[in-house]
Inverse folding.
């Protein structure tokens, strides 16, 4: 196997979906330093368009976005690509909605703001479970 393929295999392909652009920017930079290849989407509809063009190991999906509810997006993701693990991000006090996400096939959820190490661990666990 050529060396670049080995390196590529170590990377987790992540779709990060959140309408808070500053949060996405900071999180993307921090995740990329940890061998996670991040593709950003700033809305549910943009995420669906991106998912039509390429596949991912894991998606991190915000529950509360302007254009679409995170649960709606999760349901569409699961129809399009049932094997992809989805981790829900929820604001404080929205744990009930995140639990609803688990019912619809989400791998797990975290409350925002979350610890980076905790998020990275969940992403890696989700990617392993998929593989």
């Amino acid at each position: 196997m050529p060396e670049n393929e080995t390196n590529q295999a170590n990377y987790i392909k992540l779709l990060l979906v959140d309408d808070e652009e500053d949060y996405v920017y900071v999180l993307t930079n921090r995740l990329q330093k940890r061998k996670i290849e991040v593709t950003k989407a700033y809305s549910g509809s943009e995420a669906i368009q991106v998912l039509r063009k390429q596949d991912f190991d894991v998606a991190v999906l915000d529950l509360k976005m302007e254009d679409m509810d995170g649960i709606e997006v999760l349901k569409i993701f699961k129809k399009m690509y049932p094997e992809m693990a989805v981790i829900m991000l929820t604001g404080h006090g929205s744990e009930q909605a995140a639990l609803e996400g688990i019912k619809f096939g989400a791998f797990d959820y975290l409350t925002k703001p979350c610890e980076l190490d905790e998020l990275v661990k969940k992403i890696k666990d989700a990617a392993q479970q998929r593989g």
Summary: The helical segments are 3-10, 21-32, 44-53, 70-80, 95-103, 116-130. The first strand starts at residue 12 and ends at 17. Residues 3-82+90-130 form a domain with the Rossmann fold fold (CATH 3.40.50.2300). Residues 1-7 have pLDDT under 50 and may be disordered.
